[in-house]
Amino acid sequence: xxxxxxxxxxxxxxxxxxxxxxxxxxxxxxxxxxxxxxxxxxxxxxxxxxxxxxxxxxxxxxxxxxxxxxxxxxxxxxxxxxxxxxxxxxxxxxxxxxxxxxxxxxxxxxxxxxxxxxxxxxxxxxxxxxxxxxxxxxxxxxxxxxxxxxxxxxxxxxxxxxxxxxxxxxxxxxxxxxxxxxxxxxxxxxxxxxxxxxxxxxxxxxxxxxxxxxxxxxxxxxxxxxxxxxxxxxxx
Length: 236
What we know:
Structural class: alpha/beta
Low-confidence stretches: 2-8, 87-91
Number of helices: 8
CATH topology: Rossmann fold
Oligomer: single chain
Shape: globular
CATH architecture: 3-Layer(aba) Sandwich
Helix content: 40-55%
Strand content: 15-25%
Number of strands: 8
């Protein structure tokens, strides 16, 4: 994560990518970050990494994630603070694309402080809008690499070899939180939390809503096009 000196102006820009489960935040976040020369930071990926490594945080957070529940804010804030304090691999990044956080109004307000302390500022929030039926379809067929975290889909984005990750050759798995009953629980929780969050960014003129149904290429092109029109490297 780029860390700007306190005297540096302007702040390092942060693009917040919002969307429900299965909206493609990770896929489109990576594409946008690559196009902009930004670092892509996924809160979910970092939590899943802790779970794979069996860290104390991973063992605690895993119980919530597997049941389609939000990880308690205190743990999320601790992890985000660590990520924003600096990442050596991102010294040359021009900005940050953040996906999976914030998920609530309280988290959004906390993020403003965390970002400011690291010399960063939230410049725009891109919301990937997907219908509930499409969300269920996507998640029901989703496959995730147990090693590198790359995602595939049984029908719309199948791997070259069944059950094997194209990127690293590791086994593809179905996430515990992608089971049907858990999917519905995640969707309901998302709808409960997203309204106030969108209201915050809309009220500050930083919200851009994007229709996120279609092929991966089509949606990624829309995301990049919307950023080119509405995005900015200057905080608002």
